[in-house]
Amino acid sequence: MYHGIRVIGGHLPRRLVEQRIFGLRFSLPNGAKAEFVSDKMIGITVFRNRFDEYLTKRAVDAGSELMEDTPVIHAATSDGTAIVRVKDGSEFHSRFLIGADGVNSVVSRSLGLRPERKDLTKVGLGMESDFYVGEDGVDRATNGNPSVLEIIPARNRISYGWIFPKREHLAIGVAGSGVHMRALRSVFDQFHRDVEERLHMHLPLEKRRTCFLGGDGLGSRNVTDRAILVGDAAGFVDPMMGEGIAYAMKSGVFAAAVIDSAIEEGKYDAASLSEYQILCKKEFSANFRMAAWAGSRGTAFAERILPHVSGYKLASDVMSMVARGEIGYADIPYLILKSLPRQLPGVLMQVVKSKMSVSY
Ligand SMILES: Cc1cc2nc3c(=O)[nH]c(=O)nc-3n(C[C@H](O)[C@H](O)[C@H](O)COP(=O)(O)OP(=O)(O)OC[C@H]3O[C@@H](n4cnc5c(N)ncnc54)[C@H](O)[C@@H]3O)c2cc1C
Prior knowledge:
Elements: H1 2-7, E1 19-21, E2 23-27, E3 33-37, E4 43-45, H2 48-61, E5 72-77, E6 82-86, E7 91-94, E8 97-99, H3 106-110, E9 123-132, H4 134-141, E10 148-153, E11 160-165, E12 169-177, H5 184-199, E13 209-214, E14 223-224, E15 227-229, H6 231-234, H7 245-265, H8 270-273, H9 275-296, H10 298-309, H11 313-323, H12 332-359
């Protein structure tokens, strides 16, 4: 989503942008549909490997040293230093350690942080693949409009799936709560077949990517003496949509700022670093709470709400502002109440039009 791009300065090189996204289309399990399209860009699709490479290069240009194929196997902190041991047995010592090693974080495990992340009721599971279909194929699959992301239910109703257009590929995947996704591969394979049928296209499968979606980051300890967890390692993922890239980048920015002050003050203990948890809570908690609330109501909730607000400019504006990071989920009720008097004539007109078209 666009708010992720804002974290890194609001601009990405054109070559990285697969599609510019302006809207979302939901197909719901009861057959209803809802569409929200904005005149403002709400996000982009990218290839993660190219995007990650770009971020890595920015870090290196800013002075980081990159060591590839060097998996960390253990981390520890003591009064004097933070230490990581890598696979070949070498050790690296530093004043601070940032655990940015994803949802299966070795750093968090070694330091005894976030022990609950193995609890399948608290994490999601997802599987995704990119399918090469060529530009023509993307055009056909999206009815000539590749700027809209499709969200589609998987057959088990508990997980959801997506078709995200890229330039010559479609990213197709499923995700859901870990407890319901034990048979992840078969849910994905069934979804893949269903999408082929839906699009009347053969989608040759190359490589499935599986991942945990670590949630509940604000409910667990992400800081200890000399160490901070960020991103998926810290569990910062939207519990409804599984979106985590923007939160990973934002938490990285917070960690850097807190460590900067800690170095200035010469304080390395957990209490001094706890400002990080405060910053993350302040920035993410309203969003995560609202997303968890909506997510816990499941697809029945989406079926009750989305089709009724579909097509209204106000609804598309709200979706666009959330995606662009201009407001959080928690601001939605206030924004609707504030905008309603101004938008009421348009809303009434749309209701009348829809009633007239029904009665014809
Ligand atoms: C199927 C699927 C689809 C998703 N789609 C979206 C989406 O559309 N939008 C969105 O915002 N989010 C999406 N997410 C979530 C998103 O991918 C994550 O939230 C995000 O990547 C978190 O970033 P991160 O840097 O914290 O972790 P990661 O991106 O997982 O990066 C962790 C890094 O640490 C490295 N690493 C791991 N272990 C070690 C080790 N022991 N030693 C050294 N290095 C290590 C890894 O190689 C990797 O480079 C999706 C997730 C899944 C599973």
